[in-house]
Design brief:
about 200 residues, alpha/beta, three-stranded parallel sheet, two-stranded antiparallel sheet, about 15% strand, globular
């Protein structure tokens, strides 16, 4: 595995406070051209960021294994081939590279998982790593995103900052999606604020 698979590109979109660049890997069905910053704006479709809480180190390994599974299965398994032919997927194996190196969940002096703006604090200043993620999302046409954590055996969806439910029809769609996912592993599923606790900025 000493080289990048030919069906993926690896690029960066930001640098951290300590000038560490969090990589992203983009599986592709054809050998890629040299990645450029402009190519990141062509529409992502699906993102999978992990390691914002970098004391949950296993999440990076899980994501890299998933990316490898997709790349190795392309052209061999119909389901994987259909996914990659119809989707553009961004894998973000480390959201907070400074914390990842230090094995410390904080980005500067703040927890990245609690630094997203939310309706009561729309002008809140996110940590540098979360600001970079927000900038990436603003530059892409994101259709879906899934974030991995290391503990709890839970499958959760918005909202985290309030017990108020997601607007219809999204609540029923989220519920159907997460309940289907939970059938395979029997994880607990539901809105973040109901399944665990209210988590503003998450």
């Amino acid at each position: 595995r000493g080289r990048r698979p030919r069906r993926s590109t690896c690029s960066t979109w930001a640098s951290s406070l300590l000038n560490r660049a969090p990589p992203q890997r983009r599986p592709r069905r054809r050998p890629p051209r040299r990645p450029t910053r402009r190519s990141l704006r062509n529409g992502a479709g699906v993102t999978a960021p992990v390691a914002a809480s970098v004391d949950e180190l296993i999440t990076t390994e899980v994501l890299l294994h998933l990316a490898d599974r997709l790349l190795q299965g392309y052209g061999k398994e119909d389901r994987i081939t259909r996914i990659l032919d119809s989707s553009n997927i961004l894998f973000i194996p480390v959201v907070n590279p400074d914390g990842f190196v230090r094995v410390n969940r904080y980005d500067g002096n703040a927890d990245p998982n609690r630094s997203y703006p939310y309706p009561q604090h729309e002008n809140a200043n996110p940590t540098p790593s979360i600001a970079a993620i927000m900038k990436l999302f603003a530059s892409q046409e994101i259709k879906a995103s899934i974030d991995f954590h290391a503990f709890g055996e839970l499958i959760m969806y918005p909202w985290a900052y309030t017990h108020n439910p997601v607007e219809s029809p999204y609540r029923s769609r989220f519920d159907a999606l997460t309940s289907n996912m939970a059938q395979a592993n029997r994880y607990t599923y539901g809105p973040i604020s109901d399944v665990i606790y209210v988590a503003p900025g998450s």
